[in-house]
Structure formats: C-alpha cells, structure tokens
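Self-study notes.
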Amino acid sequence: MAALLEVKNLKTYFYKKRTVIPAVDGVDLKINKGETLAIVGESGSGKSITSLSIMKLVPSPAGKIVEGEIILDGKNLIDLTEAEMCKVRGNDVSMIFQEPMTSLNPVLTVGEQIIEVLMYHQKMSKVEATKKAIEMLEMVGFSRAAELINDYPHRLSGGMRQRVMIAIAMSCNPKLLIADEPTTALDVTIQAQILDLMKDLSRKFDTSILLITHDLGVVSEVADKIVVMYGGQVVEQSPVDDLFDEPLHPYTVGLMNSIPAIEGEIERLQSIEGNVPSPENMPKGCRFAPRCSKAFDRCFAEAPQLKQMGKERAVRCFLYDDGGAKA
C-alpha cells in the first residue's frame, strides 16, 4: 500500500530563555492512503505538537522544527514557504480541533466559513461555493442545511459545531485529515455519531486520518494502526488489533490496564504511578523508567532505541533487546 504521509526523525523544540524544550524528539510516522492512524498518550506526551508540526503551525518564534522530514504524497512540507503551505492547508491537509467553539469564527455565519475555503482553494464562484456548502452540510447530517448556512456558531450545540468543522475540513476533499481530540468536549452519544461520520467520509473521499486522542475506546472504534507516545517520543507502534491483544511496552500495558472493563469484579482501576516528565527536565535514560515497574539499572543510564518487532510492530524498551520479551 502506498504511503501518503511519512514523518521521519521529526524534532520540534521550544526555546525559553536559555532552556531548550524537546517537545517532539525524533518521531517517525507513516500513514498509508485511506488508512486511519491514531496517536495516543497522556497530556504532555507530544501528540498535539506532532500534529501542529505536520501542519507547520508550531507557535513561533518560541517553537521551531529543528530537524526531520514531513513528506506528504512525495512532497517535503519542511521545504515549503509559508505562502505554499497556505495552499496545502485546507486543501491537501485539513485539521479538526478539539474545541469547535474557539475554532469557528464567531462573527461569520456557518455558510461564510465554508464558502471562504471553497473560493480560496477551489477557485469557485460564490454561487458555486454556496451550493457546495449546502451539500457538505447535508453530507454531515444537517437536514435544514439551506437555513443553517445563515446561522452563527453560538446558535449551535457542541455536536453541531463539530459537524460544521468536519464539513469545512472535508469541503476540498483533502488527502489527509488531522483530528485533534475531535470528541473530547462532546457527550458519549454525540461522540459515537461524530466517529461514525468521520469513518463514512473517510471511505467516501478515500481520505487518510491522523487521529490524536487519549481515549483508547475511540481508537478501537476507528483506527487501523496506533502509535503510543511518551515524553515526546514514540514508545510503541502497532496494528490496533495486535496492540489490544498483546501490548508490548510497559507504558502501553499501563494505559490498557486503566481502561474500565464491563466484565469481572475489579472494584478499583489500576493507575500508572507518577506523572509525565516535564519536557524541560527529561530523566536520563528511558523516559518512562521512573514510573516503570519493570525498570532495571540500564533503563536509568541508557536511552533505548525503537526496535522493530516483526513487519508492523516496534517498541522502545530494553526488555525486547534480544528480539523477545525477557522475564
């Protein structure tokens, strides 16, 4: 299967006075055409900065992509000027943010915000763009789309605003859709509807999805592959079914154990001791070692590399140095 997006050795650092903060530190990703890849991890693990780096929207001048390649359909986005990236954003790559109320412009109607994108990227006339905007709103589930285009965002519920965001993101038939915690602010019923909608549109437009989330329940519903991040690095990558059947990295095991189960008599959920380390003060050696129940001396002195475990799996852990888990 052909790769749509390849991220190679991505390093995004923030500069604070005399301190260098490695928010994303050597990340590698690959998304094939029509595939959904999920990035999971706790807050502070580098998920959102990775997605902003792909869009080249890292807050500047404090933040900077210092190394790596971001190759979209054969084109390295790192080499593009800001003017060239403006043509890529919204057209080839679109992004859905986790809080639609702050992402939508409160002083423009819903219709104006979709029409603007279509006129800029697709060079449509206003009449053509208005017709297409109504079609997109109908496609994401609005029955009275022709009336809705004249409404302002504050008149819509959270779920309706997120549907509008998806309509805007999909209006130019992008090759890649980046969804950063798209269901966080929504109740469970609406979450399911939004996820189903994203899956349907992905199939219809053959769009690849990069899903940023901390919710493993969401991942199991929509993703084909999963990347687990911790401390700005990838610690495990795997097809979704394999990871749920047999998580390899101790951090992934901890995340899986913290999911509530319907069956069984466990009264108290397991938790991972400690907190995600501050990017300003990463521990020496393995970044998860201070919280890991399986850590030994080498883990505190030496940083593990990402090790291939078969064709589609990889893990960053010394437990797998000989190609298989040590007791």
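Second protein, same conventions, sequence then structure:
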Amino acid sequence: MDYTTIVYIIFFITSGLIALFTLHFIIFGIVGLFKYKKYPKTDIKKKYGLIIPARNEEKVVGNLIESIRKTKYPQEKLHIFVIAHNCTDKTAEICKQKAQKYNDVYVYEYNNPQENTMGYAFRYLFNKIKEDYGIENYDGFFLFNADNIVSADYFEKMNDAFVAGDGKDVITSFRNSKNFGSNVISGLYGIHFMTGCRLESRGRTVCGCSTRVMGTGYVIGSDLVKDGWPYVTLTEDWEFTADQVLKGRKIKFCDEAVFYDEQPTTVKIMFRQRLRWAKGHLLVCLTKTKELFKKLFSKAGKEERSNKFSVYDIMINILPMCVITTALFLLNIILLALCPLFGADAGVVWRNWAIYTGIGVAIGYVIMALSAIIIMIVERNRIKNVSFWKKVAVVVTWPIFTILAVPIELVALFSKNLTWKAIPHTDNTNFEKLNTEHYQTEEEKLEG
C-alpha cells in the first residue's frame, strides 16, 4: 500500500466518522418532511406574560403589539411586557401609546451600554416582573423580538402544546419571514429558517428528541424563570437550549403555530449577524461541551436515560463542524504535499486530488440546491408573493449561502471583543396582510 493510498484512507475514515456522528440529522430531516406532531385542542386557557425586548424598534414594535391584540386568544390572559433598552429613538414612546390604547401593556426602560445583548434585556425585565407583578402569577412566558408578527391562531396552537406537556416543556414555533420576497438575501434567510423548522425541529419532536429554540417565538413555564434569566451571551438561544437539555427539560416544536420576523436584505448586515451567531455558537461550545459529555456518560435513572440522545444530539449540534472539517481538509492537503518524500508522482497526486475535490464540490452543490427546492415545494403554502425567478435565484445561491458558514466560522474563531450590534428593522408588514394570506392559503388547501 503506497503513501497516497494511506492518506486517502485516513481522509475517508475521518470523513466517514463525521458522517456517522451526524447521520441522525438526515433521519430527523426525512421524518420532518412527512410528519409533524399535532397537539390535542384544549379548553384550558393559560395566562401568559409576553416578553418583548426592543432596541430602537420604533418602526416595527407597534405592529407586534397590534398583532397580539388581534389574535383569537382571550386577551385578558395575555399581558404584554416591553423592555425598551439602550434606545435613542421613540420606541418607548410608541409602546406607551399602545399601553394607553390596550389593557395589560406594560413598558419598562433601561440604559446600560455594557449590557446590550437581548439576554440582558430579558434578565432585566424578568426581574422587574418579579418585583412588580410576581412571576408565579403567570403560567408561562412567551419570548419575542420586536420585529415579530404572530398569526391569528398562534396563541391557541401554542397553548394547546403547552397544556399537552403540563407546562413542563418548552414549546417553540414555526419561524416564517414577513419579507421573504424582498430580495434574494431575505429569501435565503427564509429558506434557512424553514429548513431549521422542517428538517430539524419537526423530526426531532416526532421522534421524541428535544429540539432547539431559534432566536425567539417560544414559550417557557414560569418556574423556569422564578430565579431570574441567566442567559446573556451573544447567542442566548443556544445557551438556553443546551442548559434545558442538561436539566432534562424537553423543547418541543409546534408546527401549526406560525410567527413572522424580518430578515436582513444586505450583504453587510448578513455578515454581521452571521458572524455574531458563529461567535456565540463557539462560546457555547466552549462552555457547555464538557458538561454535555459528562452528562452523556453519567449514571442515570429511567427518565434520564430517555434524555441521553437529546444530550448527544445537542452536543454534536454545538460542535464547530465548519472548523473541524476545514482542519481535516487542510491536514489532507499537508499530507498530500509530502507525497514526493515517499516516491509518489506529485503531478498525478494533485491531478487526482483536483478531480475528486471537484466532483465532491459539484455533488455537494447539487444536494444543497435540491434541499432548497424540496423546502420550496413542501412549504409552498407558507411562501407568498415571491416570483418564480426570485425563487430560482434563491435556489441557485442557497449552496453559497450555506458554505459561507465555513469562512464566517473561521473569522469568528479568531475574532476578539466581538460585540452585539442591533440589526435594523424597517419592514412595515402588518397583521392583516400576513393573516389574510394565511387564511387564503387554508381555503386553497380545502378547495384542493
């Protein structure tokens, strides 16, 4: 066996191990394409606090409050808490106007430039609710972002799921985009979150594995925050998810509850946001992997044993796969560069390497483009007012959007003092537009 053959075998074995460790992702994806968990309808109407952090969100926060107050759920059971943090615009003023218009809308303000992540806003607000109203006076809390809009039956569907789990489960919902069709970049984000919901969260919930929260749009039991909110990193959602899995709490997905948010439309904002995501992801990996690994191999009772796969799943999820695969790729190149020392023909080696790499890239591109096409097809009723050619452009560029995770994660790895910066929200899409389209879609399905 010659040197180059040994190098190829090493590369295929390491690649195979990574594929084996992540094989369950494919299984969850296939299950999610065809099945979802439907929760039984309940007459029990729980009381919720709705948490809305808003930093310079004067153009969109009013629409979220309006959408909440136009939902079907008993409004006296929904108390809205807004925290205008580090604002330099009229966010607080607009929210106070809404508080005069509607009952049970409470507005807080705080300014601390050193505490500028959304997690700090959550922490401050939960502390104020505890002082002024009592955490125990609510069955649960919904966590939103100021640019969100909820569907008309959102709280009914989420309440069904929350009650089905006796209030012990975290329930997350379907994240759709209110500006999906603005341009190709917003469309790519739309596919990104639809892929997460359809190919990740649905299958995990059907299979009994804990999923993860993606930003906002989820509800938690009030007991979870009775001692405050400790998650304040760049990506508090990943930190929160890992901690809940460590504690044995399930995070379940409710496919029928849809909320909308605004996606970036420029390359600059896209890179800024994804760099923050990547850095936060790496920080969570550094702080939680050891705990998850110990939990995976610790002695456990019957109930804890059923949580072992969720622990394994989130541990694999938070690993920096882009960094790992890049390191293996570079190691392969270095080993091949040494081939002349072992009598191999360098020209032949690099020609074969270029052919195999090219074939691999082409196959990967086709697979990723097909995944975007599949999402476009299965979620077609949730993608509205997007032209055919814009959909084509999204499909063609989706592999590029996906593979950009590699350089972004590498930049994040070496970035120091990366801070949270607000993502500007200006889309004025309102409740009526989104929900009219939603109900038209339901009628179309019935007619079909």
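Instructor comment on the second fold: The longest strand covers residues 251-261.
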